[in-house]
Design goal:
By secondary structure, this protein is an alpha/beta fold. The chain contains 20 helices and 13 strands. α7 (166-173) links the parallel β6 and β7 (179-184). It binds pyridoxal-5'-phosphate (PLP).
Length: 436
């Protein structure tokens, strides 16, 4: 299968090239040329399949032409070494918990899949591939852990000194093995600029093979469709949905819109989702697009749901492409919501008091949008995109509790921090990489 760019001027790419490059040469995002429908046999067997097998069937529709069946099955099974359970919060409202992976957030799924697919395409010839990733916190941990121990790949995580919470920092500085953390004396933008300069530097690229693990990469983004199929299968198995007339509403707390976009791909493959809600924090560019038809990106504002602080969501281009820019069609399928920090906090308190369920600030946006918009007869699932303990200070403060830290997170916190201090000058970063 080939992949084309949302900007329509780059040449179409193979899966391998799309994965290695990340972004197309015309700076557009790659889209698969064909979105395959899943066969009738898949739907009739679904209730008897495991999560890994459901995911493999979906992966086969995306990648089956380009990856050998046995290898693809292994990649999917290795990726999904943890569950994404659907948990009842109250009548007709369920949380799809995506925080049971190594770094307790949904980005684990895409990062683990991408690491293994990259190894499939580039590994085996003896030369090492180097992944450079700049992070303001959560992406670095998902990517580092996704690639941890994957042979033939070395990961350099660049993060701004003193600007990352201790809980976040320990998730990528304590790993060792094939992961190196570089502590940059600067801000996140400096880290990103260093990575960009490295990709453009000819001498460096002649010295070592460099690639990125950006969230817009098709190998990180498409695998997120897996857990929507699994959520549907779980609700079917539990007789919460009828297969003849699905009343499923999926609500996705959104920032860069990769997660909801992968759900829209699932829908295009035949997944019976009735409609979607994109829940935003105060960064409401997409919400306003739905209301007005005008897309007006602007700088992001800081909120307590900070992984959604995005003022110009990259995957908006994919959504437009999927529906050929048809605003009316988009509005008929997706509604929006936007919440201030005060509303997010009030929602967390209300949900906890009534149900005992501890929402994280991102999931709280999703829960609230379902509460406000779910109609009678519908069944709502919102995504719990991260474990609340990842935002312990915020959650404890809002709920007045002392949230226990899961063992997985404690294990990171016990680890020995190892990082290499570097300045924000590209010359220093380059000199460091040339010695590796
Ligand atoms: C990345 C992230 C989001 C936003 O997901 P997008 O795919 O960028 O829309 C939401 N919640 C958490 C916890 C995240 O880490």
């Amino acid at each position: 299968m080939f992949y084309y760019s949302t900007n329509h001027s780059a040449a179409r790419a193979t899966l391998r090239d799309a994965v290695v490059r990340g972004l197309a040469e015309d700076r557009g995002l790659y889209m698969p040329e064909v979105i395959k429908q899943l066969p009738a046999s898949f739907w009739s067997e679904m209730a008897d399949l495991t999560f890994q097998e459901v995911a493999y069937r979906v992966a086969d529709a995306f990648f089956g032409e380009d990856v050998e069946a046995d290898a693809l099955r292994k990649i999917v099974y290795d990726t999904l070494a943890f569950d994404t359970p659907v948990v009842r919060v109250e009548d007709n409202i369920y949380a799809l918990e995506l925080f049971h992976g190594p770094t307790l957030a949904f980005k684990d799924v895409g990062a683990r899949f991408m690491a293994r697919l990259l190894q499939y395409f580039l590994g085996g010839d003896g030369s090492e591939v180097n992944v450079l990733v700049a992070t303001s916190g959560d992406t670095g941990s998902a990517v580092a852990n996704g690639f941890l121990g994957v042979e033939g790949i070395h990961v350099y995580v660049l993060y701004p000194k003193g600007k990352v919470s201790p809980i976040q920092e320990c998730q990528f500085t304590t790993l060792g093995q094939n992961i190196t953390a570089l502590e940059v004396d600067g801000v996140f933008d400096d880290c990103q600029a260093l990575v960009k300069s490295a990709f453009m530097d000819q001498e460096l690229n002649a010295h070592m093979r460099l690639t990125s693990a950006n969230s817009i990469n098709v190998a990180r983004f498409l695998p997120q469709a897996f857990y929507y199929f699994w959520a549907y299968a779980q609700l079917l198995k539990a007789s919460k949905l009828s297969s003849s007339d699905s009343q499923l509403v999926v609500c996705v707390p959104s920032g860069n819109f990769g997660n909801i976009c992968s759900a829209l791909f699932g829908h295009a493959m035949g997944l019976p989702i009735k409609r979607f809600i994109a829940a935003n924090n105060a960064n409401s560019v997409f919400y306003e697009y739905l209301q007005s038809g005008d897309y007006r990106p602007r700088p992001s504002v800081q909120t307590i749901a900070n992984a959604m602080d995005v003022g110009d969501p990259s995957n908006f281009a994919r959504i437009l492409e999927l529906y050929k820019g048809d605003h009316a069609r988009i509005v008929s399928l997706i509604s929006g919501a936007t919440y201030t920090d005060d509303q997010i906090a009030a929602t967390m308190r209300d949900c906890y008091a009534r149900t005992g369920y501890v929402l994280d600030p991102h999931g709280a946006c999703g829960y609230r949008a379902l509460k406000e918009q779910l109609q009678s007869g519908e069944v709502g699932v919102f995504l719990e995109t991260a474990h609340p303990a990842k935002f312990k200070d915020t959650v404890d403060h809002i709920l007045g509790i002392d949230l226990p830290i899961p063992e997985k997170l404690q294990a990171f916190m016990r680890g020995q921090k190892q990082s290499v201090p570097i300045s924000k000058d590209f010359a220093d970063f380059k000199a460091y990489l040339l010695q590796q």
